Amino acid sequence: MEKTERKRRPKFALAELEVLADEVSLQKDILFGKFSSTVTFQRKKALWCSIAEKVNAVSEVERTGEECRKKWQYTQSDVKQKAARRKRDGAATGGGTLNVPDLSPIEEKIASLLPSASTQAELTKEGWQQQHSAKKRKHEEIVEPDELISIERQRLCVEEERLTTERERLQVEEERLEVEVEKQ
């Protein structure tokens, strides 16, 4: 019995990835939103098929909606992994230079569509530098004693209000229990 080797599909071209990213950015609320009466599985599947049609307009290879969805997932995952590597390398002992290459323009566009804002800052070189310089500033800031006293007074006032509210809640609960006991 002969084994038939399965041919791999050609990689997505840059033009295909650009169209994919553009179309996903236009439809991201529906594609990644929660299911509801208006956002159904069938609607999401139809959207991926329409995205595939637009990708096919610039492609030499016929792509399906499912292929486009999977390519989006894999590419998004790769971008997240680069961000994690960038963060890990930057936080390593000795800090210093990043050995992770910068994101390509298409990866930057995909990064802008990622759901996590914290990941956003980690992805770009400037965002990474801003994030780490802000951490340094936090440690370097010195707060005056008068400011600390003022902040502590504010915190105590808030805590006092919270305790007053809690006392009132407990009193209402106690009254409710007394009424419940009388009914029995």
Quick summary of this structure?
It contains seven helices and no strands.
Question: What would you note in describing this structure?
Answer:
This protein is mainly α and 184 residues long. The protein has helices spanning 14-31, 41-57, 65-90, 105-112, 117-123, 125-140, 145-183. Helix 2 (41-57) packs across helix 3 (65-90). Residues 153-180 form a coiled coil. This is Regulatory protein zeste.
What is the CA-based Rg, rounded?
Answer: 27 Å
Residues in helix, %: over 70%
What is the count of helical runs?
7
Unreliable runs: 117-121
Secondary structure category: mainly alpha
Question: How many domain regions?
Answer: 2
Order of helices and strands: HHHHHHH
What is the general shape? flat
Number of strands: 0
End-to-end CA span: 82 Å
Return the average pLDDT rounded to an integer: 80
Note the main sheet. none
Strand content: under 5%
Protein name: Regulatory protein zeste
Keywords: Coiled coil
Subunit structure: Self-associates forming complexes of several hundred monomers.
